[in-house]
Amino acid sequence: MAGPLIRSAILDGAADLIRAHGARPAQIARACGLPAAALHDPDLLVHAVAVLRFFEAAAAACRMPTWGLAMARGARLAALIGPLWILLRNARTVGRMCEELADNFDLYSDAALVGVERIKGGALLSWTTTAGQHDSEIQMAGFSLSVLAGEIRSHLHRDWMPAAVLFRHARPTEALAPYHASFGADLRFNQDRNALMLDAETLEAPLRARGSAARALASRVVRLEEDRLEKDLARSVESVVRSLMPYAPCTVGEVSRALDLAPRTLQVRLQRQGTSFVHIRDAVRADLAAKYLRHSELSAADIAEILGYADPTSFSRSFRRWNGRSLRESRRGTMRNAVGTRL
Length: 343
Prior knowledge:
Distance between the termini: 35 Å
Shape: globular
CATH architecture of the largest domain: Alpha-Beta Complex
Structural class: alpha+beta
Order of helices and strands: EHHEHHHHHEEHEHEEHHHHHHHHH
Helix content: 40-55%
């Protein structure tokens, strides 16, 4: 379900970073229109504009102008963009991966745009918010460009840096060490875009995720190691289902491709573990439905669409089967509990 909503996985680590600087993460989240639960639950769908506000507010509360760069440390593109990482891993080169990301970023969100512009000797990989979003994108620009640079670096070598990095905002008055650590020596401010400048050699480099390493990007999402595939397969399937669910049809075929397994092989191995793909998907749906009901104002139709149901009626039947009561009864109970908590 692309659009103004994105997964709260983008907030991973935010609470710890804020507390480390003496501020209150839940208070900041609520002031920006985010449920406090989004700070520790990666499966919620939250408004992208609220996340933009949160990044800026957190930076101010922590008195940390490079908060977005700090948030990008350890963040992985594959864990953020849902089914797009399945598409990107099949690109032949870094340049083609960037073009696929730009062409299909709207599958993840319409609150920002990714673009690729070919220039002499290379290309500019740009990121910007769309019209009508928050009035500042400084922290999210730093975060997004750093995550993109990290993704490219993972396919090349650990010391790789872009040829240059461009920012719309003015040169910071404080030390530039965090910028240099993320992007290298050539930093350009007051530019007409936020972008990584990539040279021809980088664009033509092959992706490591192809061929025998086809599971590389999936591994980042499900934290899967080769020698643990059999033992943790059910958990790995659940992780991929959770990643795909809000954005794309979550079929056994899609999940099998994400894990680089034949659908029949996947089903047989799950059966050996006493479970099935349908059972795992149903459990994820039940869990996500409860979370959306408790922590969001999404309608039943919206939740049904996110969970991959053809219509709200089918979703309502499943919800009653999971919980023994109707969706309407559960929502009324949740609202009463919320009022009681406020009182």
